[in-house]
Amino acid sequence: MSSVRRVVAPNPGPYTGPGTNTWLIEAGAVTVVIDPGPDDDAHLAAIDRALKGTTVAVVLVTHSHPDHLPLAERVASKHRASVRRFPELADGDVVRAGNLNITALHTPGHSADHLAFWLPADRALFTGDLVLGRGSSMVTYPEGDVAAYLRSLTRLAALNPAILFPGHWDPVTEAVAKLEEYRAHRLDRETQVRAALARGAGTLSELTKRVYGSELGEELTRAAEMTTRAHLQKLVDEGSVRIRHAQPEDIFESVS
Question: What pLDDT is stored for residue 2 in this prediction?
C-alpha cells in the first residue's frame, strides 16, 4: 500500500465537516498532492511541513469547488509542479508520477467536473466529494445531477475498492459497503420525494417540508430545497413528474 498522509484544511463547517482533506501520496522519490483546498496561508504552510522537502510531481484536483481547488496554483507554483483537473484530465487518463500510475475517473453527480482518482495496484480510491467519510454528499440543483451521481457510485463499486480516501472526514475501509450505502440513501430520498408528490402537487418549498419536515434552520432548509429540486429534476427528465409554471413558484406534480 502506498503511503498516504492527510493535511486537514482549517475550514470546518456544516458542509465541510472538520475541514477539507488534502491528500499526499508518496510515489517513490516524489509526492502527489490531491485537493490542495481553500486559499489559506496557514493551510499552505501545513502542506509544506507535511511534504518535508520532498518533490511534488503533480497536483490533482477532484473538482472546482472553493474548498478544494483555490490553493492548487500556489502549491504547484511553489513546488514547480503542474495542476491537473477536468476537463484537461479526461476520463480514463493515467497520471504517471514516480512509481505510481493514477487513473482519473470522471464521476459527475456532486458536480459536473468531478473526478475520482484510482490507484489500481492498491485498490485505493480518492473520492473527493462523491463519497465522504461520514454523512452524505450534497447533490443539489442546478449543479448536482442525481442520475449521474447514481451512475458514478455504481461505476466505483464495480472496481471493488479496498479503501476510500474522501474529501472530508476519515478514510473508509469498508469501501464497497459505503458506496452501496450512499446509493441506497439516494434511492431512499427519491422514494421520499415520490411519496411527497403522491400526497398531491406542490411547490418546491412545500415538497421539501413534506420530505424533511419543518424544523431545519435557514441554511439547511436551502440545502434541503436544492437537494429536493435535484431529485425532482431526475423525475422530470424521466417523465414521471411535470412542472406547472406558476407565480410565485413553479408547481410540481406527478404524471398520471
Answer: 86
Predicted pLDDT at 220: 82
**What pLDDT is attached to residue 217?**
76
| Integer Cα distance of 55 and 98 in angstroms | 10
pLDDT at 214: 77
Q: What does the alpha-carbon distance between residue 219 and residue 229 come to, in Å, rounded to a whole number?
A: 16
What cell does 108 get?
459527475
Q: Can you tell me the distance from the alpha carbon of 113 to that of 173, in angstroms, rounded to the nearest whole number?
A: 26
Residue type present at position 227: T
Q: What pLDDT does 117 receive?
A: 98
Beta bridge partners of 240: none
HSE-CB of 97 using CA atoms within 13 angstroms: 28
The percent helix, strand, coil of the chain (3-state, each to 5) is: 35, 25, 40
The amino acid at 234: K
Rounded to two decimals, what is the model's pTM?
0.96
What the chain holds in terms of domains, given with CATH numbers, is: 4-187 (3.60.15.10), 198-254 (1.10.10)
User: Closest Cα to residue 74, out of 99, 48, 106?
Assistant: 48
| Segments in the chain below pLDDT 70 | none
The runs of H, that is alpha helices, within the chain are 41-51, 72-78, 146-158, 175-198, 204-212, 218-238
Q: What angle do CA 152, 155, 159 make, to 5 degrees?
A: 135
- Exposed (0-12), middle (13-18) or buried (19+): which is 215, by Cβ within 10 Å? exposed
* Grid cell locating 190: 427519491
Question: Which cell goes with 52?
Answer: 518535508
Predicted pLDDT at 1 = 74
- Please, are residues 163 and 124 in contact by the beta-carbon 8 Å criterion? yes
